[in-house]
Amino acid sequence: MKNYILITGGSGFIGSNFIRYLLSEEFDCHIVNLDSLTYAGNPLSLSDCEGDDRYHFIHGDILDRGLLERLFEEYAFTGVIHFAAESHVDRSILGPEAFIDTNIKGTFNLLDVAYRHWKNGKGFSRFHHISTDEVYGSLGETGAFTEATPYDPSSPYSASKASSDHLVKAYCRTYGFPAVITNCSNNYGPYQFPEKLIPLMILNIMEEKPLPVYGQGLNIRDWLYVEDHCSAIWKVFCDGKDGETYNVGGGAERKNIEIVHLLCDLVDKKLKRSDGVSSRNLIRYVQDRPGHDFRYAIDASKLKNELGWEPAFSFEEALENTVDWYLNNMEWVNNVRSGAYREWLDRNYSGRQKGEL
Ligand code: NAD
Ligand code: DAU
């Protein structure tokens, strides 16, 4: 009998990297990718996996409970890895409702359907909820988030993720449901939607557009290459303990302005610009993000000590790989930047805050 794992949100940034990561390993399960293909989900991100008979795509929404019930009935999933979410903080500030729907109600649907399937003794053994370090709020100059750090979310996005984490924890404690949670820091790498800092800056530098840096650019994020996140997820999915949370991070803290400077220099070098003018001239300090968390840093020692996971990629090398990937994949970029994304940008940004995106 085939062993099916349900992956939600597999056509987004981390989900598509994760599916590719699994299919490149000696992996003997079948993957069902359930994705509603919002602006952030794109089948092109997995076009190279389409021919693999271990990969199956279902176009559908986690808000559709009837669909979830039918899929669990049909495929008798043994596990779920739940990536599907609205993921962009700025969007959550401009319009929180979709975050409440997908991140809270959608997670509840999935959790509850999986729980009933497990309770009926259908061979289900693991629900893995993918979450974020943003649930912990903001750090000052020192310290790092551990799994015991109290939740203190700042944005509608992080509040909705915190809420979904609490639901998962409640199902573990109340019903003994076998779930794990990973809370990860900022990812970067191929196939990230170009609304997020790193791909946005790479593309704006290439196209000689303004580089909008929020506030003074002094906020700090702890960066992790997406493939390292994928290896951590698989490690926790296979070996983590039911009911536990694991923090995932790369130990690569950088100020936003440092990232932007690095990217300007890298892209300038790659494009061999001959006029000698640095792209750093394109930097524009713009109005700060409301409720902007100052600093994130992850203490990933639990994952290291208990499960032996460590990141494999160095920040400088992986950032350069990422720049190369965007420069060589403009077809993907043009595809994801058309349609719904363009309409959203036109509606929400006059150009004052974001420059000419
Ligand atoms: P993304 O926005 O790139 O992708 C989200 C995917 O979910 C898209 O394919 C979208 O179509 C799909 N989706 C959205 N709503 C859906 C719905 N109602 N039903 C079915 N599919 C739906 O996000 P990402 O950056 O890949 O993040 C994936 C997960 O990882 C999220 O849960 C996010 O909170 C978490 N996370 C992200 C980061 C990061 O740095 N990007 C870091 C830590 C945790
Ligand atoms: O920490 C994990 C989180 O990382 C994930 O849970 C989120 O899904 C993911 O989007 C990311 O959230 P951030 O808000 O940290 O990422 P973003 O790329 O939007 O911003 C990174 C930093 O750069 C942040 O301090 C805001 C700043 N920024 C961002 C953009 C888009 C700018 O200065 N200018 C910009 O144009």
Report on this structure.
With 357 residues, the chain is an alpha/beta fold. The protein has a domain at 4-191 and 223-253 and 294-313: NAD(P)-binding Rossmann-like Domain (Rossmann fold), CATH 3.40.50.720. It has twelve helices and twelve strands. It has a seven-stranded parallel sheet, sandwiched between helices. Strands 7-9-11 form a three-stranded mixed sheet. A two-stranded parallel ribbon has the order 8-12. The model is unreliable at 349-357 (pLDDT under 50). The protein binds nicotinamide-adenine-dinucleotide and 2'deoxy-thymidine-5'-diphospho-alpha-D-glucose. Residues 8-9, 11-15, 35-38, 40-41, 61-63, 83-85, 87, 102, 106, 130, 132, 161, 184, 186-187, 193 line the site of nicotinamide-adenine-dinucleotide. Nicotinamide-adenine-dinucleotide is lined by residues 8-9, 11-15, 35-38, 40-41, 61-63, 83-85, 87, 102, 106, 130, 132, 161, 184, 186-187, 193.
CATH architecture identity of the domain at 4-191 and 223-253 and 294-313: 3-Layer(aba) Sandwich
What overall geometry do the principal axes of the alpha carbons give?
globular
Order of helices and strands: EHEEHEHHEHEEHEEHEEHEHHHH
Low-confidence stretches: 349-357
Structural class based on helices, strands and sheet pairing: alpha/beta
CATH T-level topology of the domain at 4-191 and 223-253 and 294-313: Rossmann fold
Tell me the span between the first and last alpha carbons. 50 Å
What's the number of extended β-strand segments? 12
Q: Are any ligands bound, and if so which?
A: nicotinamide-adenine-dinucleotide, 2'deoxy-thymidine-5'-diphospho-alpha-D-glucose
Computed over alpha carbons, the radius of gyration is 20 Å
The proportion of strand residues reads: 15-25%
Helical content class:
40-55%
State the fourth-level CATH superfamily of the domain at 4-191 and 223-253 and 294-313.
NAD(P)-binding Rossmann-like Domain
Question: Whole-number average pLDDT?
Answer: 94
